[in-house]
């Protein structure tokens, strides 16, 4: 049996990671909803995982790849810095241009009033989840299993509390338990799309490797700063959220060293 291609691995790995969004939302089906403090702790954990993945699984490999292409000096660092800013800018642009709605801050983007709220929520979560799938796909495209597996596991772990948060918020908006779970589960399906794109781009052109790795890192860093950390601090649980972030960061660091 032939081994799977990096593109197939990127798709399947990001699909598996995205599927854990549905797993994380399962408690709403049984009416067992953790407290807000616990949810903020878990979202802090998700932020820590993404932060560690951005640096240890994406930015450092991007620097190594750029140095392999251009030797040491200022150019590899400049490439990675520019790609990080491009990744952050791309998500910021989507956030600005696509109509969407956050559970706390309300509607954003053009023509938001003309769409049903559920679609605005789904678009917001898609903006959030796409960079995560992209990162997993780029990891597999760059270095096969050793590059993508730590990212897929880490992103999957942080998807679970995000799925729960989405489902609980939808319950608060009046959706039934099953519909809230179903919508949360569906939002994870954007990740394999990002994974396929990320792995495909890297598979087509190796010179794009440092750009792709750092771009994915920048996209995730924007989501951490703009979405996750502010959300965990809204209800006065920042100490628990910071504890969760610390635990998530060191677990992702351990996974990256152990599996990478």
What attributes does this structure have?
260 residues, mainly alpha, two-stranded antiparallel sheet, 80% helix, globular, ZIP, DNA polymerase epsilon subunit 1
List the total number of helices. 8
Taken as a percent bin, the fraction of beta residues is: under 5%
Could you estimate the helical fraction of the residues in percent?
Answer: over 70%
Overall number of structural domains:
1
Major beta sheet, strand line-up: 1-2
Order of helices and strands: HHHEEHHHHH
Query: What global shape is seen?
Result: globular
Largest sheet: 2 strands, antiparallel
State Rg.
18 Å
Protein name: DNA polymerase epsilon subunit 1
Keywords: Cell membrane, Membrane, Nucleotidyltransferase, Transferase, Transmembrane, Transmembrane helix, Zinc
InterPro entries: ZIP (IPR003689)
Family: Belongs to the ZIP transporter (TC 2.A.5) family.
Compact description:
The chain is mostly helical.
């Amino acid at each position: 049996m032939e081994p799977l291609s990096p593109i197939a691995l990127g798709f399947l790995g990001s699909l598996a990671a995205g599927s854990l969004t549905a797993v994380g939302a399962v408690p709403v089906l049984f009416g067992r909803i953790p407290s807000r403090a616990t949810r903020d702790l878990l979202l802090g954990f998700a932020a820590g995982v993404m932060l560690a993945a951005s640096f240890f699984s994406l930015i450092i490999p991007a620097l190594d790849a750029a140095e392999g292409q251009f030797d040491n000096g200022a150019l590899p660092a400049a490439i990675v810095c520019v790609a990080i800013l491009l990744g952050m800018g791309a998500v910021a642009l989507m956030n600005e241009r696509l109509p969407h709605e956050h559970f706390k801050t309300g509607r954003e983007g053009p023509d938001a009033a003309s769409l049903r709220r559920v679609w605005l929520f789904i678009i917001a979560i898609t903006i959030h989840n796409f960079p995560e799938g992209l990162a997993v796909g780029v990891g597999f495209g760059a270095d096969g299993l050793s590059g993508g597996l730590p990212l897929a596991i880490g992103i999957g772990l942080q998807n679970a509390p995000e799925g729960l948060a989405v489902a609980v918020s939808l319950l608060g908006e009046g959706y039934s338990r099953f519909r809230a779970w179903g919508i949360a589960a569906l939002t994870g399906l954007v990740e394999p799309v990002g994974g396929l794109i990320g792995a495909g781009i890297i598979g087509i052109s190796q010179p794009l490797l440092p750009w792709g790795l750092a771009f994915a890192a920048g996209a995730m860093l924007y989501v951490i700063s703009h979405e996750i950390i502010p959300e965990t601090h809204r209800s006065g649980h920042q100490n628990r959220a910071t504890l969760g972030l610390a635990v998530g960061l060191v677990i992702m660091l351990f996974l990256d060293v152990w599996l990478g």
